[in-house]
From TrEMBL:
PANTHER family: FLAVIN REDUCTASE, FMN REDUCTASE (NADH) RUTF. This is Flavin reductase (DIM6/NTAB) family NADH-FMN oxidoreductase RutF. SMART domains: Flavin_Reduct. Keywords: Oxidoreductase. Residues 10-150 form the Flavin reductase like domain. InterPro entries: Flavin_Rdtase-like_dom (IPR002563), NADH-dep_flavin_reductase (IPR050268), Split_barrel_FMN-bd (IPR012349). Gene3D superfamilies: Electron Transport, Fmn-binding Protein, Chain A. The keyword Oxidoreductase applies. It holds the Pfam family Flavin_Reduct.
Length: 154
């Protein structure tokens, strides 16, 4: 099976869009990601899946901490910036939660310590224990079929 067929299939699973952030030696790094999942309630765990070719991979291995900011439908420019799709430095604004950078005005910021990591194929799953959460009202940015959109209740 070719990679395009696989991506077309996975792209039919509509997701939200997040920016994963971490900090190494006072330097903040951010990356757009939709491979994010809630894992456990007790203890409170989440996971992200990071490509071994992404700079984020070595940064999280070093810092052993990350935050996941769930983007609102007003933050497509933020997603495009942190995916390297369209540079927009003006869209980049960080707040700090428990000393970890998060995206300002995101719907939710979840701050984590890495407690486990699993190399699987060309990605690593980082399991994060949730240290703190920040909630903001708004509507989510969606990703479906390789395109951005917004959420509509049926
Ligand atoms: P770079 O490509 O160097 O950084 C990404 C961009 O962020 C660059 O433009 C950089 O200038 C900017 N940036 C980073 N830090 C800062 C900062 N402190 N201040 C200002 N700008 C900064 N990949 C995965 O591995 N897992 C996923 O789950 C995933 N999901 C995705 C979902 C979507 C909807 C999209 C569009 C892409 C997804 N990707 C995912 C791909 C990933 O976002 C890109 O490959 C990304 O470019 C990898 O980032 P990098 O860590 O290699 O760093
Ligand atoms: P796309 O058609 O490439 O993505 C559709 C779906 O395919 C994604 O939601 C994801 O589930 C899956 N996918 C895509 N690339 C993958 C990868 N390298 N590893 C595992 N799953 C992957 O959508 P697009 O608009 O072409 O995406 C923009 C860019 O972002 C592409 O370069 C794509 O590879 C990358 N991306 C990477 C991941 C990831 O690494 N997990 C996820 C989404 C998008």
């Amino acid at each position: 099976m070719d990679s395009r067929t696989f991506r077309d299939a996975m792209g039919r699973f509509a997701t939200g869009v997040t920016v994963v952030t971490t900090q190494v030696d006072d330097e903040t790094h951010g990356m757009t990601a939709n491979a994010f999942m809630s894992v456990s309630l007790d203890p409170k765990l989440v996971t992200i899946s990071i490509d071994h070719n992404a700079k984020m991979y070595s940064r999280i291995k070093q810092s052993q901490q990350f935050a996941v900011s769930i983007l609102s439908d007003e933050q497509m420019d933020v997603s495009m910036h942190f995916a390297g799709q369209k540079d927009n430095p003006a869209a980049v604004q960080f707040d700090f939660v428990s000393g970890i950078p998060v995206i300002r005005d995101a719907l939710t910021a979840v701050v984590c310590n890495v407690i486990e990591s699993y190399e699987v194929g060309d990605h690593t799953l980082f399991i994060g224990e949730v240290l703190e959460i920040k909630l903001t009202d708004g509507n989510p940015l969606a990703f479906f079929g390789g395109k951005y959109g917004s959420y509509q209740p049926v």
